[in-house]
Amino acid sequence: MYFGGSVISSVDFHGRIALAIFLSQCPLRCPYCQNGELLEDKSEKSLEEVFKLIDDSFDFIDAVVISGGEPLVQSRDVLEILKYTKKLNLETKLDTSGVYPEKLEPLLDWIDYLALDIKAPFDRYNEIIGSDVGSDVKKSMEMAYNKEGLQLECRTTYVPKLMSLVDLEAISKIVQCDIFTLQQFRNRNVLDQSLSKINSPNPIDMREFAEFIKKYNLPDIEVQLKTAEFGDEIIE
Q1: Which residues are 154's β-sheet partners?
Q2: How does the average pLDDT of the chain come out, rounded?
Q3: Is pLDDT of 35 > 90?
């Protein structure tokens, strides 16, 4: 499989120490992507080598996270990793853009936690990231939300040049999830170099907006805010 690297992490799966596995390749070219080196990387590792990574980390971890890139480009290998992880009684988390609902569906029985990127209002994907995949992401979200026993987090990164607060509010009105996370754009290591000149959104303004959508649009689910200045915050 195309393999981008791995790290033992305390931040990729909240409350767990996890082995985070990054798989290369992605069909999207989001302007603010910060893992651009993985988009077309073809470094390889066999399934057996990945299983050994998990075995070697077993004494130190509670979970395995599969991220990317877009892991579902290699969905068959992802399924085998998930099955192996569950056989060891470790928890599983998958990070995905949601562009492959048909590949996601057979994996849901093996996932404890799904982090789904909602990059734009579903009808504005093509305008904001250059790929008309909003309907596929919507299908993935609905499928995961209706899966019993699966915890679903929807994540949106606020990139001022690409989207407005109107877009963020529209997203907050359409998400179906257990947790909604609003993330601050960082201008380092972005795919579209013109964005490197855009300042990160003011964290205090972002907190005020997160409080607004929590109160008016998402009162019944957990709302989180992630900024460089204040770290992870739960919005009350």
Answers
A1: 116, 180
A2: 96
A3: no
| Amino acid letter, residue 173 | K
Pairing, β 179-184 against β 3-9: unpaired
DSSP single-letter state for residue 61: -
Please write the tens of the pLDDT for every residue from 150-201. Answer: 999 999 999 999 999 999 999 999 999 999 999 999 998 899 999 999 999 9
Strands 151-158 and 113-117, sheet pairing:
parallel
Tokens of 183: 């993330």
Three-state SS at 41 = coil
pTM: 0.96
Over 90: is that where the pLDDT of 60 sits? Answer: yes
> Which amino acid is residue 144, in one-letter code?
A
Instruction: Note whether 141 and 149 are within 8 A (CB).
Output: no
Whether omega before 231 lies within 30 degrees of 0, making that bond cis, reads no
The per-residue pLDDT for 102 is 98
Instruction: Name the maximum alpha-carbon separation found in the chain.
Output: 49
SS3 20: strand
Measure the CA–CA gap between 147 and 199, rounded to whole angstroms.
38
Would the pLDDT of 115 be above 90?
yes
C-beta atoms surrounding 234 within 10 Å: 11
For residue 231, the cross-strand partners are 227
For 191, which DSSP code?
A: S
Handedness of CA 39, 45, 51, 55 (dihedral sign): negative
User: For residue 17, with 0-12 CB atoms within 10 Å meaning exposed, 13-18 middle and 19 or more buried, which class applies?
Assistant: middle
Residue 75 near residue 100 (C-beta atoms within 8 A) = yes
Q: Is the pLDDT of residue 131 over 90?
A: yes
